[in-house]
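Possible regression after last week's pipeline update?

I re-ran a chain I had predicted before the update to compare outputs. Posting the input and the new output here so someone can diff against the archived version. Not blocking, just want to make sure nothing changed silently.
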Amino acid sequence: MIAHLPFARRPPLRHPSIRHLSRLLLKSPPPPFDALDTGGTILHTIPTQPHHRALPPRSHRPSRPRALTLVELLIGLSITTVTAAILAVLVSSTATGTNSIQDGRRLLVRVQAVKSIISDEIANSRCILAVGPTYLVFWAGDNTSSPVTPNNAVNLSELRLLEIENGQLNLYEVTWPNTFSKPNILSADSTYAPNTNWYNAAVTAKSLSYFKPNTIGTNITSMTSTLDASDCTDAKLVTLTLHLDDSIVQRNVVVGTALINQAPPW
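New output (post-update):
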């Protein structure tokens, strides 16, 4: 901003001479163009600086902590709830996957146990006596450790029944009570005739307290038996197909076993 300040007006010269005027012109430099006023006033340009209002000094005191508003609190609770829900879903999925893996492993162990027991029983038997849609009757052979003298015939203690009952695969065999003496065993261990209906004989034996079932498999709904001979007593290879359904998986378990020392009685 430029301010024009007037200087005192020079008094007029009375009757100046030419010499006096020339001296005045030589001693004083001509004023700038913008310093001449129309009224004969000589002006000078004086630069000035803008006037600034002094600001108060800044305070150095620490600011007071601000509390959470209701909206901020609700937003924080919403984020926490969503995060907790996501974590719950992840934990549940992990637990479900782990349980499924464990169930699959338990099922595999059960299947292998069933196959092992059936293979061992049939491989060490001497003869297949009868087959049906839910059963297999076979002769275990003469037992040299039994009180009964080996007679190359089927006795009650040597009879075996593999049957599905209410989803359970049971293996029936004789277990003599501890109170039975040798005469009791000889009296109870009856010998069957060659023309016996073997399944009916096994069903009748189930009514005896010492012809007991051993459950070797569960959730088994059906069983199919296949022999390599038309006559059961001539069969040397037995193939059993068990249908397993435990509400998790459904599968067919195939057990193929050959009789090691196949020989029909009599």
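Follow-up from reviewer: compared with the archived run. Residues 1-5, 40-46 have pLDDT under 50 and may be disordered. Marking as no regression found.
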